[in-house]
């Protein structure tokens, strides 16, 4: 199975999440070929130079050869590069596993939170994600709320 890990890669936090997620996937899924863009120094060594076309062509080639996309959805908003990768990959009609670990997902059954939101829209204790992007993921995939659940979803694919 070939997989592509999409997430931001410029902050320490993103890079650490990518390392953790990649390690968990590689450990749990025997023989997986996992492409992690931050490991591709040809286009992502920021002390060197790669233009936008080189980056787009390299990542598109890896997306096209992948069986599954693992896309991290955390952050203030979905990373713009990740959203673009989801859009491009969705055109291949292959599974996408979203990884969304934001703790504001907890307590969805708490009626006080729901009632507060109904009374005052600024009391939103939940988190919003672009529904078009979420819909692209759900067309052929799923959204996991932890690294462990993402690994389980990949293992279920049997590709």
UniProtKB/TrEMBL annotation:
It holds the Pfam family Nuc_deoxyrib_tr. PANTHER family: 2'-DEOXYNUCLEOSIDE 5'-PHOSPHATE N-HYDROLASE 1 (PTHR15364:SF0). It comes from the Bacteria. This is Nucleoside 2-deoxyribosyltransferase. Transmembrane segments: none annotated. InterPro entries: 2'-dNMP_N-hydrolase, Nucleoside_deoxyribTrfase. SUPFAM superfamilies: N-(deoxy)ribosyltransferase-like.
């Amino acid at each position: 199975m070939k997989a592509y890990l999409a997430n931001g890669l410029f902050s320490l936090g993103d890079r650490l999440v990518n390392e953790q997620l990649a390690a968990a996937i590689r450990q749990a899924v025997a023989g997986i070929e996992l492409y992690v863009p931050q490991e591709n120094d040809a286009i992502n060594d920021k002390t060197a130079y790669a233009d936008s076309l080189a980056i787009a062509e390299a990542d598109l080639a890896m997306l096209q050869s992948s069986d599954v996309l693992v896309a991290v959805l955390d952050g203030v908003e979905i990373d713009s590069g990740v959203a673009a990768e989801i859009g491009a990959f969705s055109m291949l009609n292959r599974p996408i596993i979203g990884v969304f670990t934001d703790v504001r997902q907890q307590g969805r059954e708490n009626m006080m939170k729901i009632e507060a939101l109904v009374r005052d829209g600024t009391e939103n204790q939940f988190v919003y994600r672009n529904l078009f992007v979420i819909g692209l993921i759900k067309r052929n995939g799923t959204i996991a709320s932890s690294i462990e659940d993402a690994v389980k979803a990949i293992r279920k694919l049997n590709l």
